[in-house]
């Protein structure tokens, strides 16, 4: 699914305030592009510990996770944190 952030205040969007996203656990294929067309989207793998930040002109880019790669989280992370298998994403934005 490819989405575009539209729920924030008009002021926040006009200022291009950034979205900051932290990935924990399983890796995921993240897609982004200036169109809603999945076939034309750029793709990048987000792994545990990765931080993604987009703002300014790229603030309204279409984006989303297309695939989660099962069992790709570092075993040491699961062992020491007692996290369940899967992916945890923390996303911060200013409304």
From TrEMBL:
This is Uncharacterized protein. It comes from the Eukaryota.
